[in-house]
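ingest -> validate -> predict -> emit
validate: passed (alphabet ok, no gaps, 280 aa)
predict: started
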Amino acid sequence: MKKIFIISAIAVALLAPQISHAKEKNIIKFGRDIKIGANRVVRGVAAVAGDVTVDGTVEDDVVAVGGSVKIGPAAVIGGNVVSVGGIIDKNTKAQVTGNIVEVNIPGFSSLTLTKYKTRKFHFLIKAVSFVGLAALSLFVIAIVPEPVRKISHIIEFKTIVAISWSIRALLTIVPLAVILTMSVAGIFLIPLEVILVVGAMLFGYIITAKIIGKAAINAIFKRGDLKEWNAVLGITLLELFGFVPVIGWLVRAVVALIGFGGVIAALFPDKKRKQEHAEP
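emit:
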């Protein structure tokens, strides 16, 4: 019995390091940070709109698009380290076999702020974002009234179509980003994908806010139309509603998704809608 115990103890002691260093597959995340802790071994890491922190072992490349890479003293990376729109903070004791590449693109900086900066400038960032979004809404509605009209019609009267297109587009975004991370040339196209997606969501959010603002005016005054300022009113109401825990965030997310779907639906109209627009 004692021999069996000793043999079992030796087996566990020999296998424990192997279990703790068990290799994981590629880790790819969109809009979230990735942390590779000590004693962790992964094949490759790619983050889109997120930061990467490596304290363990990565056998292949480490890529952050719209984010930064922090490499700890115990980190071992067998491939390249690439940051598009962020910075690479490498400890002098870390081991990196491949190249270290920082790509700084004008107008496309890290999409994530550090926790310290977020806490320190939270209200300032919120205020600037609100004013900027309100000003952008006035500009967009004044410059491209016809696309705004078409997308508004889809969102207001064909909401299910907008939601359907939003789901289909979202199911395509992440796989496309994953495919692009597989090559160096594709990595440089990921910022373009992010810009297009964020732009479409922002455009759709503004138009949906315009509809909400107009509905609020009609509900209060029975009749009324602030025209371009409907969007500013809608954005204001959504910002105020955003202070409600959980529900506020959820409502704003749904508004953004519906608006995004409306924009995509307008870009790919079906035959029925083409005939409707073609009729006098």
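The longest strand covers residues 27-30.
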